[in-house]
Design goal:
By secondary structure, the protein is α+β, with helices and mostly antiparallel strands. Helices cover about 35% and strands about 15% of the residues. The chain contains 21 helices and 24 strands. The strands form eight sheets. It has a five-stranded antiparallel β-sheet with strand order 7-6-14-13-12, sandwiched between helices. Helix 2 crosses helix 8 and helix 14 (about 350-355) crosses helix 16 (about 400-410). It starts with a helix and ends with a strand.
Length: about 700
């Protein structure tokens, strides 16, 4: 009886001591937790719209340590890693007692260490809390830390830490950094040979670096492939085939794209670890390659800037601030996409767009290209020659200066700037100057980004969209009545799509315009298809003249190569909107067959005020307004001459409201023939007959 009582007391005491021990261990664990916070120090990353790495930033210690998750790594690599390093990883609690026993027996029988007993959890403990030397106390602390880590983290989280912090020689840490440096790719899909090398390197990272000790790297990879457990994991015969694959002998640079965008992102938040962008990696890499190669051909001191945007969303998909960020001779650190420079002739399409919108001209209207004097302002063509009588289509395609100024004079320069403000673009005028005719030929300042924003409206049927900056500024629709009417925007696009590509470039189904600023300081080329707009600027950042620099000869070839190398398939240009048509010169109203105005925008007349004339639609025109589908759209009516206000009639019935404008919208009742009439304030009338389809 006494024996049983003593046994019970002893058992109770043992339980109490065990309980006290567990409480003390738990208290110690809480008092001295593992330094898991240190594991949070990783490289910041800038990614593209699809999550691909564009650029990484070294840690404060100068390490390339890219955060890695097991789900982002090739499953075959994970199998090989566990098979080689820690076969019972998913079953032990941080310490593999079988491995420790085996290592101890081998030490006793062989007199030296034959195999280690470190688990992946113990290696993580060592990586986040490194210690000098390999003493017994350091090993015991490592074991304790491994047990603590296992209490706090799941197996997947522990694996994530190993994949992020494993050393690969030099300043490379983690599987992602090593895969990018040695294979030039993310570790999502690895060959057996690549996976075996990444398993082998962390044991002796400096001695096995492939870029310095190729033979040792090959031998280490071979040992991994010959391990029985690894062979079982990868399948029969795979190891032998992988051994014949060469080990990479050079280390590649990690992705370093979009330097100026990265700079803007870092200024936004220096402490952030992720910088999402709207850029597309393939587009960005292609544009940067084109810019670098083109700058080398053009010679020293010249820089190149490029912006490609999605005209439907406003997102920037590629942006090159300079030909080479690190080239001091080209002032590569200056972001020329944000510099305000003279745009040359690149604003002319918008002048023509307003002229189309107001019914002043059609594509086949004859306009004079001869010396002209606008109250002392005498524009001259780029080549100092004149073409005489040309069509409006030819005038824009040849980028003739005098016709453009004549149209701007008739429209009013202030109206052009008002339309730019609708697109949220505000060019810089010379100090203390009001808008003059010179703005049509580049007499103001504008950035490449803003120019792309303007051209996005042309690609978008006249509807402007706000272009973002790829990082901070959010793109989006601009709530306004439109920068140009859809028909006017289509006419401009139809003309620009017929401009001959530069020498050596193939036709790509894009509409484009070039420009050269005064004094050969800036060369521009802006082009677009049905979805994307690409703008190119070439020049010197210090605004010095560059003899021979032209938009057509210098910037246009870069534009076409940029579209080709961007990797984006060309989207067809927008189809004609309802009511749009090409009208032959012989079918134009008399008032539109030849454009003639006096300086100041007044219609040239024979001594008296001109009677009203309907210039759109022309007599007898068949206008597709969607009547066949039952979804009718309004028809834009335009007139010239006459004295306001104007009264419009359709089939003898007055339309609502008397208007002082020379444009009017009319909604027909349905398909068929209609007679349209306008009467001015003096009682003079003009009529046309049209067929609504």
């Amino acid at each position: 009886m006494r024996a049983k009582k003593k046994l019970a007391i002893g058992s109770l005491a043992g339980i109490l001591l065990a309980g006290v021990g567990l409480v003390l261990l738990d208290a110690a664990d809480r008092a001295y937790p593992p330094p898991l916070a240190r594991a949070d120090t990783v490289s910041a990353e800038m990614r593209d719209a699809d999550g691909q790495l564009l650029r990484a930033f070294a840690t404060p210690e100068g390490l390339w340590r890219l955060k890695t998750r097991a789900v982002d790594v090739d499953p075959q690599f994970l199998k090989m890693l566990v098979a080689y390093e820690d076969r019972r990883f998913y079953t032990h609690a941080g310490v593999d007692l079988q491995a420790i026993g085996r290592a101890a027996i081998q030490l006793v029988t062989n007199g030296r260490i034959v195999s280690g007993a470190s688990t992946l959890s113990m290696q993580v403990a060592r990586l986040i809390e490194p210690r000098q030397g390999r003493s017994l106390s350091a090993k015991l602390l490592q074991i304790a830390r491994a047990l603590q880590i296992e209490r706090r983290l799941s197996k997947e989280q522990i694996l994530d830490l190993y994949l992020t912090h494993a050393p690969y020689g030099g300043n490379l840490e983690g599987v992602r950094a090593a895969s990018l440096a040695y294979f030039g790719k993310e570790p999502r899909r690895l060959t057996i040979a690549e996976a075996a090398l990444l398993v082998a390197l962390p044991q002796l990272p400096e001695k096995r670096r492939p870029d310095r000790n190729l033979a040792m790297a090959e031998a280490a990879r071979k040992r991994v492939l010959e391990r029985v457990a690894v062979a079982d994991a990868i399948g029969e015969g795979e190891a032998a085939r992988a051994e014949n694959v060469p080990v990479p002998s050079q280390r590649m640079q990690l992705p370093a794209l979009a330097a100026h965008v990265a700079e803007a992102a870092r200024r936004k938040d220096l402490k952030a670890l992720q910088y999402p962008t709207t850029l597309k990696k393939q587009v960005q890499a292609g544009l940067e390659a084109v810019a670098r190669a083109s700058a080398l051909k053009l010679g020293p001191k010249l820089s190149i800037a490029m912006v490609m945007a999605d005209a439907r969303t406003g997102e920037i998909v590629g942006e090159v601030g300079s030909a080479d960020y690190f080239d001091a001779s080209r002032s590569g650190w200056i972001d020329m996409t944000r510099a305000s420079r003279s745009p040359g002739s690149t604003l002319k399409p918008f002048i023509y767009g307003l002229a189309f919108e107001e019914g002043l001209v059609s594509q086949e209207t004859i306009i004079e290209d001869r010396p002209a004097d606008f109250f002392g302002y005498r524009p001259r063509n780029f080549d100092m020659s004149y073409q005489g009588d040309v069509t409006v289509r030819e005038a824009l395609q040849l980028s003739l200066n005098v016709p453009a100024v004549k149209l701007l004079d008739a429209i009013n320069p202030a109206k052009l700037l008002i339309r730019f403000r609708r697109a949220q673009v505000r060019p810089l005028l010379p100090p203390n100057e009001t808008p003059g005719l010179a703005i049509g030929l580049g007499g103001l300042g504008i950035t490449l980004k803003d120019l792309v924003q303007l051209y996005s409206a042309l690609a978008n049927r006249g509807q402007p969209i706000r272009i973002g900056d790829g990082v901070n500024e959010q793109p989006g629709k601009i709530d306004c009545e439109g920068m140009l009417e859809p028909v006017a925007a289509w006419n401009v696009t139809d003309i620009l799509s017929g401009v001959i590509p530069p020498a050596g470039a193939r036709k790509q189904g894009i509409a484009y315009k070039t420009g050269t600023s005064y004094g050969y300081r800036d060369a521009w080329s802006i082009g677009y298809d049905g979805r994307h707009v690409l703008g190119v600027w070439v020049g010197r950042p210090d605004n010095s003249a560059v003899p021979g620099l032209t938009g057509y000869g210098t910037a246009a070839p870069i534009l076409f190569e940029g579209f080709a190398k961007s990797g984006i398939a060309t989207t067809p240009l927008s189809s004609p909107p309802l009511g749009a048509m090409r009208i032959a010169q012989s079918e134009l109203p008399i008032s539109q067959r030849r454009f003639a105005v006096n300086p100041g925008g007044l219609l040239a007349t024979s001594g008296r005020e001109a009677a009203p004339q309907i210039v759109y639609p022309p007599e007898g025109a068949h206008v597709d307004l969607g009547a066949k589908s039952g979804d009718l759209s309004p028809l834009m009516l335009k007139l010239q001459g006459g004295r306001a206000p104007f009264r419009w009639l359709a089939n003898g019935k007055p339309l609502p409201d008397i208007s002082r404008r020379r444009t009017k919208q009319w909604m027909p009742d349905g398909r068929g023939y209609s007679k349209l009439t306008v009467i001015d304030a003096m009682g003079r009338a003009a009529s046309v007959g049209v067929f609504v389809d």
